[in-house]
Each structure stands twice: as C-alpha cells, then as structure tokens.
Amino acid sequence: MNRHWSGFNIVSVVVGFAFLYIPILLLIIYSFNESRLVTVWAGFSTRWYGEMLRNQALLDAAWVTLRVALVSATAATLLGTLAAVVLVRVTRFRGRLLFSGMVFAPLVMPEVITGLSLLLLFIAMNLDRTIFTVMLAHTTFSMCFVAVVVQSRLVTFDRSLEEAAQDLGCTPLKAFLTVTLPVIAPAVIAGWMLAFTLSLDDLVIASFTSGSGATTLPMRIYSQVRLGVTPEINAVCTVLIALVTTAVIIASVINKRSMVQRERAEQLARAG
Amino acid sequence: MRSLGNIRRSFAPWSDANAKAMISIRNVTKRFGDFTAVDNLSLDIYEREFFALLGASGCGKSTLLRMLAGFETPNEGAILLDGVDLTGVPPYRRPLNMMFQSYALFPHMTVADNVGFGLKQEKMAKPAIAERVAQMLKLVKMSEFAGRKPHQLSGGQRQRVALARALAKQPKVLLLDEPLGALDKKLREETQFELTDLQYDLGLTFVVVTHDQEEAMTMADRIAVMDAGQIRQVATPAEVYEAPNSRFVADFIGSINLFDGEVTRSDAALTELQSPEGFALRMVDGQSRGIGSDLTLGLRPEKIAVTHTKPNSGVNAVEGEVWDLAYLGDMSIFHVKLDSGKIIKASVVNASRSGSEVFTYHDRVWLSFAEDAGVVLER
C-alpha cells in the first residue's frame, strides 16, 4: 500500500470529497440560518427546526414515511432472507439462474420503470392507491438488497451447524430458527437497516404508487420546494440526513464487527 | 485360521454365526447424478463394536456415514438398526448421533448450552439437563470450560465438546466423521486411546470415518477398506494388515513390496514362485496352486532382514545395493536396489543403541525373509 501523501493524492481526496459533500454541508449550514432567504446568511438560529415541528403537513408526511419504512423493511427482510437461503442452499434446481437473475434485476432497474410497472399492476388489480400500496412497492424493490446482503453471509455459513442441530433433534425449520438465524443475525439486521433507509428516502417509486392521504416525506419536500425553498426544508433534510447516516453507520458497524469476530474465531480455530 | 498379529481379541461377534447385527446395511446404492458414491454395498456392524470406514477421499465413506445419520437417502437398498428400517426416518428422529468433522459447535452458545442442546430438544427438565451436561463435561474433562464460547477454545477442546454434545443424548450408535482430522499429531495419538477407552467404558457402538489408516488401526475392532463406493475388505486391523485379500488392500494399508512371479512348484504346504528378476520365492500358502499360474507375493518392509553376508539357507534371499537410508529413531528404513533395478523397501528395528551391523550408501547387502513372512495375492 502507498502510504505517501503526494500532492496529487491530497488534491484528489479534497476535490472528491468536496464534490460529494459541499452541497450537503451547505444544506446543513443553511438549516441554521436566521433569514427566510435561503442563500443569505443572517446569523445562527434553530428557528426553522421549531417551525418544522409546527408544520402539520410535514409531520404527517414524516409519520407516513416512518410507517412505510418500518413495514416495508420488515417484509423485505423476511422475503429477502428466504430468497437468499434458497439461492445459497439449493444449488441445483430448474431455473435457478433465471431466479437469481430475477431476484437481483431490481437492483439495476431504473426506478421509473419499477414505479410505473407497479402503478399499472395496481390499476389492473383495481387496488386503491393508499399507504398500503406504497409499502408493497417498497418491499418489492428493497427485498433484493436484503437478499444480496444475507446471501453474502450465508455463503460462508457452515452448513454442518444446521445438520448438527437436526442430528440433535431439531426439525429443519427449528434448526434454521435456533441455529442459522442467530448466527447470520448481523447480516439480517444490516439488511433491514438498508431496506429501511432505502424506503425512507425514496421519491420516485412512492410518487407512482401512493394516493391521497399517503404523501411521504420526500414527496412532501419535493412539492414544497417547487413553491420555493424555505430554510424549514433544510431543517427537515438535515434531520433526515442524520437519521440515514446513523442507520447506515450502525448497520456497517454491526456487519464489520461480526466479520472481525468471525475472522478471529477462524484464526483461533486454525491456530488451536 | 492362523492367528495374525500379536493381539488376541476376545470380542468378536462378527465370527459368531448366532450374533445379530445392530446396524445392517443391505445392498445400498447412492448416486449423485451420474456419479455413484456408494455402489450396492452390504455391511453388518455389531453392538459395542468400534467400526472404522477407511478409504481415500471420494471413496464413498462419508456418504455412507451421512446415510446412517439420515442426511442422505439411499437410491436403493435399506439400512436397518436393530431390525427396524431407517429409510425415510429423518435425522432428528434417529437414535444415533453424529460428531462432525468441523465439530459444528454452535458459535452463539456456551459450551454447556451446546452440550445440552439435544436434551433441550427432548424437552428434558432443566435440572436434569444441567446434571447430564455436568456429567458429560466431566467425562471429557471440560468441566471448567462450561461457560466459554466455542471461539475461546483450542482445537482439542472443541473436539471434546463436540464429543460430549454427541454423547449427551446417550445414542445407541455414535457416528464420527474424521474425529481427529483437525488435531495435530501428538494430540491425535493421545486422543485415539482416549476415544477407545471411552467407547469401551460406555459400551457404545462407534462408527468412524477416516482416511488415516493409523487412526483406524489404533481404534477400530474392525476396518472396512473402501474404494470407489465398494468395500474391498472387512476385517480386524491385524487381518487387514497381515492377510489383505487383494493387491489394492495390501497396497493401501501400510507399505508393501510386491513381487510378481510364476508358480514353479506347489503343494498344500509350500508354494514356490520364479520371479522375472531371476530368483526363487518360497512361501507358506496353505493351498495348492496351479503350476504356471501368475501370483504376487506381498512382503512388508519390517519382515525383511538386511545383512552384509549371504544367509545360510540360501532360500528367499536376494542381493542388492543400498540406495537410500533413513534413520527414524525407532527404526531405520532401507531402499535397496536389486540388480534388475527394482527398489525394495526394508525396515529394521533399532533394538540396541549401537547397531549390530552398520550400513552405508552403495553397500552390497542381502535381503532375506522367512517362508511365512509374505502373503500370497492373486492377480
């Protein structure tokens, strides 16, 4: 590894990170702006955070988003974990390649297409667009992310653990629940967090699949911005960034820690 | 039959016609796609027996063990335990337990929870579980580690916990998949005797899969030598070593020198071969062979004597040149090149600290062996 901080390296890092984070930094800074005008600094204030908390429409949207994220992340984790188990365990069945391709296709599918196809489906099914349809849509697109995370953990899972549990008297289902699930839990939790944050900040798919009374926070923000950006929006966004960042950090710490533990255990096993 | 080796066994239900087999494997075949892992195999294993399935990797021994445990289903044939057909009985209802090669200890549970896991599935009362767990941990000398997690244990300690866990449910039969494969040599040798003592004391039936012949010879009452999904010979360690039934088994177990030859004289007592290398081999065979038929004499290295001078009798003696030498402490290994170019392995026990005869490279030496030292193998 190259440890030297050459001039070129420093410039690359600074430019890269500036490019990534200056807009977000500006947004956060201006959320503490006293002035109503977004681009003119008039002193530090938390006024807009108070204003935000008095904005009932915004709070309602936040509540909708939270409910959607909780339900869809949980459902996606359930389905995604099951898909991962099948993909890892059943290595040979008719159409496995097609199945794995179809599980992972939504990862690269343009959101507009996912949203539009779901909308068409809901219309065809004569399903009223409510908060429920948004939950369904979010489950659909985030379960493949869960499947990827859980699958990568399951690949290194020692299958004989589950066989040992069966040998000692567990049915296959009970063996999975008492042995496999606790061991792969960090990956499942990380998958849940990922699904949660994906749902939290989705605008496109929610716009297609939600109806009246089911406006999510990103939709609310988007529609308010079209009428003009207020520092209040900056405040909401700052809160969202804080939430998402925390979730992502927790998820990666959990994953990283269990990985380190696993590696240490494996090293010990080899040394022992 | 002549007694073989210097250990006599009082336990030999397999030679008793009235003894009933505990495990009866009947014409079992297992195929994976085009590959036949176990090929029309039949085998009886008796109660309290320590039975070893020995073979190279891919010979089907693990598949056979997994069929006993219930993780694989035979395509044909049946496996009976005490006369009850096990086909279709899932692993969690079989009265046998398995110790896995990787030990498969549950990483999120303590040692005590691991050992008690099977009892908990039986819905045994908590105090009874605690008592049995303590008893099992004492048995494998792991009592002070009850509260540890598997990753805090050494390889040898994990092996003991895995054993305790498999024994906790007091199974009729314990299946062991390469039980000592992950241990280093010294620990492995100690554990081999511990396992046999444990098996004897508990009066259990053990079926062990191993690729290590020394392990099989040390521990087992009987060994099944497997190759390509079939059993080549089932016999006691001494029989497998001293009276292999084929070139394959002779070659697989230990090291052996093989001399091909043509029968020149044969009666019920002695058979004489003329080898293509140009010397005569005379041995006790016990049956009359056809003159002119092709046979092979198998001769273990430790049954060959190495001397500087030609032995008096003159039979079963051949001259060669010392090609390679190795001093191993307890014995020395000689590679002697005959004039025909064939290399013969001989090993000499170093019974005294200073050798009675001293050899070095390129010495001319005589190799000789007794008339009952070799085993006759058909080709």
Structure write-up:
The complex is a heterodimer of chains A (272) and B (379). In chain A, 78% of the residues lie in helices and 0% in strands. Chain A has a single domain (54-271), classed as MetI-like (MetI-like fold, Orthogonal Bundle). The radius of gyration of chain A is 23 Å and the shape is globular. Chain A is built from 11 helices and no strands. The model of chain A has no long low-confidence stretch (mean pLDDT 85). Chain A has 272 residues and is mainly alpha-helical. By secondary structure, chain B is an alpha+beta fold. Chain B folds into 2 domains: 13-248, Rossmann fold, CATH 3.40.50; 255-378, OB fold (Dihydrolipoamide Acetyltransferase, E2P). Helices cover 22% and strands 33% of the residues of chain B. Chain B contains 8 helices and 20 strands. Chain B has helices at 61-69, 111-121, 126-139, 155-167, 185-202, 213-219, 237-242, 247-252, and strands spanning 23-32, 35-45, 50-54, 76-81, 84-85, 96-99, 173-177, 205-210, 222-227, 230-235, 257-266, 270-274, 280-284, 294-299, 305-307, 317-327, 331-338, 343-349, 364-368, 375-378. In chain B, a hairpin with a 2-residue loop joins β1 and β2 (35-45). Chain B is globular. The mean pLDDT of chain B is 87. The chains are: A mainly alpha (272), B alpha+beta (379).
Keywords:
heterodimer; A: 272 residues; mainly alpha; MetI-like fold; B: 379 residues; alpha+beta; OB fold (Dihydrolipoamide Acetyltransferase, E2P); 6-stranded mixed sheet; 5-stranded antiparallel sheet; 33% strand
Briefly say what this structure is.
The complex is a heterodimer of chains A (272) and B (379). Chain A has 272 residues and is an all-alpha fold.
